[in-house]
Amino acid sequence: MGAVRVAAIQMTSGSDVAANEDAILRLVDRAGDLGATYVQLPEYATYWGPRSGYDAAAKSLDDGFIRQLGLVAKGRGITVHVGSMLEPATDGRFYNTSVVIGDQGRIVATYRKVHLFDARPPGGVVYYESESITPGAQLTVVAVGEMRVGLSICFDVRFAELYRALALAGADVLAVPAAFSASTGPAHWDTLVRARAIENHAFVVAATQVGVTTEGLATHGHSMIVDPWGVTLTESSRTDEDVLVADLDLEQVARRRAQIDVLHLRRPEVYEGPVTSPKD
Asked: Is residue 280 domain-resident?
């Protein structure tokens, strides 16, 4: 099993959909020029702006831009993971949806964000994603060549059980496209991303938004690619767009899991039983 070159694209998306799409095409091309065969975009890659623009920005899975990315993917023989985009839901809200386009130009997987960012971070902007977004209810692992990629989006990274489920389902690479808050990012982002890698002995590819939009949405940046031992292979220090590449030796996953076999040493029958606590 050889090394697989992957790319994490860092973007400064905003509310101008056409400008975001132009940037995506340009950055995907750059990643392809660098030899990446799997290219991951950040959360809200096609639109990162206020709720008032959601209706115009939302895309169906057969949208013309998705088809255009399919042509790019097929032409270059690469997989393009649209970190996430707005997809219309049936309840008048939207899904926050990852779309994975395979090297034949067709959609091979989708994932709708399960955990929604309803939070009041200290010093940050109060944000209730559930006011506009409908949560998904299905986890996804997709085969990308020799990789088995477990899909997630941003706030999911705080829920370790999601990633354990993906690892148990065969994922050896965990995808974390994000628009991680600038108020929590300095304290939490690096630790959370590396923890998900360490506890599952899996690679993590984390492509992020960075900077502040004209509407004041501030994101942390620091796109990362981390190995199964928790070592950061590459991390962006830029405050604008960037393309990170790393070669993933997938044999590391099996080797680390054999050394510390956390997946087989689990005791689910204990976790699911009663928990004792001191009496009042």
From this structure: no
Catalytic: which of 43, 59, 87, 241?
43
Q: Is residue 102 part of a domain?
A: yes
199 assigned to active site: no
Structural tokens at position 6: 């992957």
Question: φ and ψ at 30, to 5 degrees?
Answer: -60, -45
Which run of H or E residues covers position 218? Answer: strand 218-220
Choosing from 21, 59, 87, 113, which is the catalytic residue? 113
| Number of domains comprising the chain | 1
Q: Give residue 80's domain range.
A: 3-265
Q: Is residue 271 part of a domain?
A: no
Catalytic one among 21, 59, 154, 241?
Answer: 154
pLDDT in tens, 51-108: 999 999 999 999 999 999 999 999 999 999 999 999 999 999 999 999 999 999 999 9
- Spatial separation of the C-alpha atoms in residues 217 and 211, rounded to whole Å: 8
Q: Looking at the domain assignment, is residue 279 inside a domain?
A: no
| Cα 210 to Cα 207: distance, rounded to the nearest angstrom | 10
| Chain segment 180-230, per-residue pLDDT in tens | 999 999 999 999 999 999 999 999 999 999 999 988 889 999 999 999 999
- 3-state secondary structure (DSSP) of residue 102: coil
Tell me if residue 59 is catalytic: no
